[in-house]
């Protein structure tokens, strides 16, 4: 004798005999309503008549639907370049810091985008901006000044390979231009 073990709703979902709630539509399974999905199917498509068929063991899974696999890709940079700072001395030596936005602040306080542990750096020491394809660095009235290639600046344009000194911490600015979009 073959044991009846499951029901299949009109949508092709397999419903176990002991289930009291359909996991697909959330409807309650009762003697009067053995496949709540059928009610949804009626509302969606009046052409299809809801039918319930008893399925015998072993059951076949519903036919596989064609799926398209999409690989996740990170969003493309909005700027025409990628840039970062590389620490040259002290505890940040060898660490790189990606500049992901059009404006970052550097300082010795926690709300700075790049926080440096340097007793000679001000809380809000300087900022780096990207605008119209150019990077610039601005001193934010720091106590000890901001230096680019050993020159004290208030505001200066920076390019790939420039050395930036904040307090006693030195960085090298790196930048790669991205090719034009096709």
> What order do the helices and strands follow?
EEHEEEEEEEEEEEE
Task: Tell me the helix content.
Answer: under 10%
Number of strands: 14
First-last Cα distance: 67 Å
Shape: elongated
- Unreliable stretches: 41-56
DSSP strand (E) fraction? 35-45%
Q: Main beta sheet: strand number and arrangement?
A: 6 strands, antiparallel
Arithmetic mean of pLDDT: 76
Q: What class do helices, strands and sheet pairing give?
A: mainly beta
From the alpha-carbon coordinates, what is the Rg to the nearest angstrom?
32 Å
**Distinct helical segment count:** 1
- The largest sheet has its strands arranged as 5-4-14-13-10-11
Write up this protein.
- 4% of the residues lie in helices and 36% in strands.
- The chain has 1 helix and 14 strands, in the order E-E-H-E-E-E-E-E-E-E-E-E-E-E-E.
- Strand 13 and strand 14 form a beta hairpin.
- By secondary structure, it is mainly beta.
- It is elongated, with a radius of gyration of 32 Å.
- The longest helix is centred in the first third of the chain and has 8 residues.
- Strands 5-4-14-13-10-11 form a 6-stranded antiparallel β-sheet, with no helix packed on it. The chain has a 5-stranded mixed β-sheet with strand order 7-6-8-9-12, with no helix packed on it.
């Amino acid at each position: 004798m073959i044991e009846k073990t499951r029901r299949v709703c009109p949508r092709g979902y397999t419903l176990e005999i002991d289930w009291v709630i359909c996991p697909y539509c959330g409807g309650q399974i009762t003697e009067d309503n053995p496949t709540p999905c059928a009610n949804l199917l009626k509302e969606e498509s009046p052409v299809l008549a809801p039918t319930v068929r008893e399925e015998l063991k072993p059951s076949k899974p519903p036919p596989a639907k064609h799926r398209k696999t999409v690989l996740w890709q990170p969003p493309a940079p909005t700027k025409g370049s990628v840039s970062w700072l590389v620490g040259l001395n002290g505890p940040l030596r060898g660490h790189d810091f990606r500049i992901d936005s059009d404006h970052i602040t550097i300082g010795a306080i926690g709300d700075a985008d790049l926080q440096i542990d340097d007793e000679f750096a001000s809380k809000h020491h300087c900022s780096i901006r990207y605008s119209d394809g150019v990077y610039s660095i601005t001193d934010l009235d720091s106590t000890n000044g901001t230096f680019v290639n050993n020159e004290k600046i208030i505001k200066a344009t920076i390019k790939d390979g420039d050395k930036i000194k904040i307090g006693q911490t030195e960085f090298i600015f790196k930048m790669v231009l991205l090719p034009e979009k096709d």
